């Protein structure tokens, strides 16, 4: 976006959120879906590192703050209705809290849910759990 982009120009839902899809910038791999509020968008643009809004914790969540698996922002794109964003990122390590590279590791094939990616890291190792 240009220097004049204002996070307030996005169309946030009733909870003050927009959907945010994170995608690996060079491979196109879809990593995760999260939510952003105005402060998360502003911080992401200011710092160059992905920041989301955690609905379960009701606070900003800086990707990698506990796991070290950060997302460096390459580009932020806004969809045609300005109610969702695409973050093209450089993902360090895994993106999913389950230890997988992508949160999208289940495919529906022939009417069945099939796991298509195994964990690359032990979640307890990432989060000390």
CATH architecture of the domain at 12-97: Roll
CATH domain class name of the domain at 12-97: Alpha Beta
* Count of alpha/pi helices: 2
Give the proportion of residues in helices: 10-25%
Low confidence ranges? none
CATH overall fold name of the domain at 12-97: Ubiquitin-like (UB roll)
Percentage of β-strand residues: 35-45%
Domain Phosphoribosyl-AMP cyclohydrolase: 32-105
Enzyme class: hydrolase
Pathway: Amino-acid biosynthesis; L-histidine biosynthesis; L-histidine from 5-phospho-alpha-D-ribose 1-diphosphate: step 3/9
Family: Belongs to the PRA-CH family.
Care to describe what's here?
The chain is mainly beta and 129 residues long. It has a domain at 12-97: Ubiquitin-like (UB roll). 12% of the residues lie in helices and 36% in strands. The protein has a four-stranded mixed sheet with strand order 2-1-6-5, covered by helices on one side. A hairpin with a 5-residue loop joins β5 and β6. The radius of gyration is 15 Å and the shape is globular. The chain starts with 17 loop residues before the first strand and ends with a helix. The model has no long low-confidence stretch (mean pLDDT 94).
Secondary structure topology:
Elements: E1 18-24, E2 30-36, H1 38-47, E3 51-54, E4 59-62, E5 71-78, E6 84-91, E7 106-109, E8 112-115, H2 123-127
Parallel strand pairs: 1-6
Antiparallel strand pairs: 1-2, 3-4, 5-6, 7-8
Binding site for Mg(2+): 79, 81, 83
Domain Phosphoribosyl-AMP cyclohydrolase: 32-105
Cofactor: Mg(2+); Zn(2+)
The gist of it:
Pfam families: PRA-CH (PF01502). This protein is mostly beta strands.
């Amino acid at each position: 976006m240009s220097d004049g982009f204002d996070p307030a120009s996005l169309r946030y839902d009733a909870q003050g959120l927009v959907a945010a899809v994170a995608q690996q910038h060079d491979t196109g791999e879809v990593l995760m879906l999260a939510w952003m509020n105005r402060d998360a968008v502003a911080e992401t643009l200011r710092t160059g590192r992905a920041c989301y809004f955690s609905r379960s914790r009701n606070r900003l969540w800086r990707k990698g703050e506990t796991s070290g698996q950060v997302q460096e922002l390459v580009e932020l794109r806004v969809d045609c209705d300005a109610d969702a964003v695409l973050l093209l990122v450089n993902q360090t390590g895994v993106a999913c809290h389950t230890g997988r590279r992508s949160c999208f590791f289940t495919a529906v094939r022939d009417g069945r849910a099939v796991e298509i990616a195994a964990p690359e890291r032990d979640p307890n190792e990432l989060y000390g759990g």
